[in-house]
Amino acid sequence: MRAHASVLHLDLDAFFAAVEQRDKPSLRGKPVVVGGVGGRGVVATASYEARTYGVHSAMSTREARSRCPHAAFLSGRFHAYRDTSKVVMALLRAASPLVEPLSLDEAFVDLEHSGLPDLEIETVTAFAADLRAQVREATGGLTASVGLGTSKFIAKVASDLDKPDGLTVVPPGTELTLLRPMRVSVIPGVGPATAERLRRAGIHTVEDLEAVSLDELVRLLGKAHGGGLYHLARAEDDRPVVPEREAKSVSVEGTYDTDLTDRRLMEGLLTRQAGEVAGRLRKHGLSGRTVTIKVRLHDFTTLSRSSTLPSPTDRTSTIARVARGLLTDLDTSGGVRLLGVGVSGLADWIQEDLFGEDQEDEEVPVEVEVPTSRQRRTWAPGMDVVHAGMGRGWVWGSGRGVVTVRFETAESPAGPVRSFAEDDPELSPWVPQEPAEDPPP
Question: Which of 25, 77, 107, 150 is the most exposed place for a label (fewest CB within 10 A)?
Answer without folding.
Answer: 25
